[in-house]
Amino acid sequence: xxxxxKSSHGDKKEKKDKNKKDKDKKEKKDKDKDKKEKKDKDKKDKEKKEKKEKKEKKDKEKDKDKEKDKDKxxxLNQQSKNDDDxxxxxxxxxxxxxxxxxxxxxxxxxxxxxxxxxxxxxxxKIMKKIEILKSKxxxxxxxxxxxxxxxxxxxxxxxxxxxQDEKNxxxxxxLINGGELFTYLRGVGRFPLDQARFYICQIIxxxxxxxxxxIIYRDLKPENILIHKSGYLKLxxxxxxxxxxxRTYTLCGTPEYLAPEIILNKxxxxxxxxxxxxxxxxxxxAGIDPFSDxxxxxxxxxxxxxxxxxxxxxxxxxxxxxxHLLDADLTKRYGNLKNGVKDxxxxxxxxxxxxxxxxxxxIEPPYIPKVKSDDDVSNFSQYPDSDTPAPQIKKEEDxxxxxxx
Length: 405
Ligand SMILES: Nc1ncnc2c1ncn2[C@@H]1O[C@H](COP(=O)(O)OP(=O)(O)OP(=O)(O)O)[C@@H](O)[C@H]1O
Ligand SMILES: [Mg+2]
Description:
CATH topology of the domain at 181-359: Transferase(Phosphotransferase), domain 1
Mean pLDDT: 87
Bound molecules: adenosine-5'-triphosphate, magnesium ion
CATH superfamily of the domain at 181-359: Transferase(Phosphotransferase) domain 1
Shape: globular
Helix content: 40-55%
Strand order of the largest sheet: 1-2-3-5-4
Oligomer: single chain
């Protein structure tokens, strides 16, 4: 210790010199640093400027492209993203009086119900908690409720609100009494071309709107499309809908309507909805879906093979748009290309469609269902009312309790 101190005293001058040297060194270092920083900043500024110029050039080119495409197809110009807060409304179960079953689903059934306060009839989608838990679908149902609250479109059912008890979840949906497109299509066999076009145009409007909100629907099929008493369509069942900006991987949908990228589990996104439009259009015109088979495995094989057989006399314009929609190659599938929906609306199959009028429901529908009163359910199949009641879920095991509080 002592030794250290001493030496320290004896080094005083040397230390002073050293300090001066260090100071000079530091000043030089600081100067160099300043110089380097300035140089870096200049470089960054230059890069920024170049990037900005590049972006401006690209935007200009895009605008030019847009101008060029203007008269090719029609942009449907519907509501854009975030047009409301999407808050989930809650309802009171005691306000409703349950009636007959309209349809059955994976987790329960949909019943007509009367809102005793307003006197209005609604469709109550009742889903058993136990069944949802068994099949691990809680996330999908949460999506369904969230998305129904965000979606406001003339061709989509309106969502009235959500509630639950110990056994079930309850979704209040606008009642559509014209029945399923499925029942009607099976009844008549197939639709004349104009009728098929009238319906598919509405689905295109819906998907364009949903995709604008980054929502994919993923479950198009005639069972999920209802006919309003006006003759226009209303899409129901958002059980597989999802908000997604890129790709997602869950296998879901109905075998005959699955896009190849879903079967191959490659990850899928908005283009799957355009694929299902191709299947639906084919099914409406031919009366049977293009990859139909009694064995689901064969259905998958046919989809992956991608060979579409058209019955003789199938309209050539319809054939063409269907082939563009049922293209396994995502870089070629219509709806997924640079021009988006305009490649579809601009196709010659839709040449005479007045999209604006359609959206305003100003076109006379080809078929008006018979609906005698607001509570008429005669357009739906009859279901025996012997549904086994769902078991109660214990409070501590119930993951739904805090939903949308
Ligand atoms: N708003 C509504 N108005 C009238 N009927 C409806 C309505 N919503 C649904 N339904 C009927 O109930 C059936 C089942 O509803 P939904 O498709 O939503 O249930 P799901 O459990 O998701 O069905 P799945 O999983 O089998 O497709 C429909 O196919 C339809 O017949
Ligand atoms: Mg359904």
